[in-house]
Design goal:
Gyrase A, domain 2; single chain; about 280 residues; globular; about 35% strand; Elongation Factor Tu (Ef-tu), domain 3; five-stranded mixed beta sheet; alpha+beta; 2 domains; 6 helices; 16 strands; six-stranded antiparallel beta sheet
Length: about 280
């Protein structure tokens, strides 16, 4: 694979949050600490949960022209936007969709020389996930991206999976999935020291009472075939299920007590005579 390329996030939508109460308003809703978000060079990645601590949406937030700009997948947009309106109550905040921006991810050590008006920052989840960039649809600087090769979004799915970063619209189920089972505690999505937020009590209880019994793992397919939804059964013992697949990699939800040693030692799992997988 070439070293200098970009990928377009064709599913991204943007919400601007303004008003004098915008800081306290968001702080009471999201899993991360909004106070970390000082400017467009200090983004935060965060989630919005149900009162029962179940996943509803994830997004990026930057401080943009003294307001907050949120990038969210179109699948989560309507629900999240409606929840913002519900929780607004008497808070002095306003919400507006920004339909002028396009989202890209750049993987290159030679970033084109964009102007200072372009929003550009390192993905806060993991150092291996490239540089995120937002460009106005009418901007002449879109042509600078053509200095790089464009890759398909399927490549991005593989990059996320190899780094144990869930692709939330595929790998999680709204109002059912739990953050700690899906590695969000290791991708800078949760601040354990901030005050209360919706779903905080359940999330904290799972961490401090060690209630986690299953979690996601990445397996590399060495031979045979598997598909999302397939059971992972070794020696007649079911140890989990396949969540999604990208190339030769599979994201699986597995029982921790049954795979802990195998995972640490990067061992193989033999499902049958032809299908073998290995922990990354």
């Amino acid at each position: 694979m070439e070293q200098d390329y970009y990928i377009k996030n064709t599913f991204s939508k943007f919400i601007e949050i303004s008003g004098e109460d915008r800081v306290s308003f968001l702080q009471g809703l999201i899993t991360n600490d909004i106070n970390k978000c000082h400017n467009n060079k200090s983004p935060v990645y965060s989630c919005f949960l149900s009162p029962q601590g179940k996943f509803l949406s994830d997004f990026f937030i930057i401080n943009y022209n003294n307001n907050y700009l949120i990038e969210i997948h179109e699948k989560h947009f309507e629900l999240f936007y409606s929840k913002l309106k519900i929780y607004k109550l008497r808070s002095k905040v306003e919400f507006n969709e920004n339909s002028n921006l396009l989202s890209f991810v750049i993987f290159s050590k030679k970033i084109p020389e964009f102007s200072k008006n372009i929003i550009l920052y390192n993905d806060p989840r993991n150092d291996n996930l490239g540089i995120k960039i937002y460009i106005d649809k009418q901007s002449n600087e879109l042509k600078l991206l053509k200095l790089l090769k464009e890759y398909d979004y399927e490549i991005y799915k593989q990059i996320l999976m190899k780094n144990l970063v869930p692709n939330s619209t595929i790998d999680l189920t709204e109002n059912k999935s739990l953050l700690l089972e899906n590695n969000f505690q290791n991708i800078n999505a949760i601040d354990w020291d901030k005050g209360c937020y919706i779903g905080q009590e359940i999330t904290a209880r799972m961490k401090y009472r060690s209630l986690l019994k299953k979690q996601i793992y990445v397996l590399e397919l060495l031979s045979g075939n598997i598909n999302p939804g397939d059971a992972i059964i070794e020696q007649d013992i079911k140890i989990g299920n396949v969540i999604s697949k990208a190339g030769k990699y599979a994201l699986c939800m597995l029982k921790i007590n049954l795979v802990k040693n195998k995972s640490l030692n990067k061992e193989q799992i033999k499902l049958n005579s032809s299908t073998h997988l290995k922990f990354l």
